[in-house]
């Protein structure tokens, strides 16, 4: 009986690990896909806090410490992303002293970070723990602040509402700094650059060199993402848009043949297509 119980427990643990691995994209074979550089402009990732928050400058100052002590460089190597280096990061946010946001977070002892499942920035390991460049970065910042960090999955389409209602304290998930976000939030200076790329079947990659080559195709992108914006702003592409709940879902559209292309973040595509 003990042996049977042990075997059942081992099987359950293995099944749980498999689900976790699949959740971050690891359970799929993306080797039949290819990344196409469309020559689009670079985007810059930042962290969004509530408008007028005194947290923005605090996190910028801590980020500069993490850059200078090599912590961010080490995370960049681990997760194969391009974080800014020494000399490229200067805190500029208004300290907004007395805003009360830091006092609120300090009082509850927890920084609630709004995220989505987005490797290599935020995803679960085999034990269900959130890891990734942003997850590890957030933990390092929280440690210096002397508070715990709590990761909360959010609906990306309703990130503004989650932030303003205090359901979360910040948006920290490979978030592209945009004019729209800066209307309702205070963003840190960029800590990483990114760009949008097309993901297509490897066998078709030579057909596509520029954004115009995607005209007439069915193209998947995450709803509310920078990739969706690229498609909507190009009249030749907009009619083929298929909005998905996540970027990995958009890539699975191409993998299954339901869409001919997906527009996603380079950081995500590089993490999944080896």
Labels describing this entry:
about 270 residues, D-Maltodextrin-Binding Protein, domain 2, 10-stranded mixed beta sheet, two-stranded antiparallel ribbon, 11 helices, about 40% helix, globular, disordered N terminus
Plain-language structure description:
- It is a single chain.
- The chain has 274 residues and is an alpha/beta fold.
- It folds into two domains: 24-41 and 195-272, Periplasmic binding protein-like II (D-Maltodextrin-Binding Protein, domain 2), CATH 3.40.190; 42-193, D-Maltodextrin-Binding Protein, domain 2 (3-Layer(aba) Sandwich), CATH 3.40.190.
- Helix content is 39%, strand content 23%.
- Strands 1, 2, 3, 6, 7, 8, 9, 10, 11 and 12 form a ten-stranded mixed beta sheet that branches.
- A hairpin with a 5-residue loop joins β4 (123-124) and β5 (130-131).
- The longest helix has 22 residues, at 2-23.
- Mean pLDDT is 89; it is low at 1-26.
CATH-derived architecture of the largest domain:
3-Layer(aba) Sandwich
Tell me the span between the first and last alpha carbons: 44 Å
Total number of helical segments?
11
Q: By helix and strand content, what is the structural category? A: alpha/beta
Identify the CATH homologous superfamily of the largest domain: Periplasmic binding protein-like II
Topology as H/E string? HEEHHHEEEHEHEHEEEHHEHEH
Predict the CATH topology of the largest domain.
D-Maltodextrin-Binding Protein, domain 2
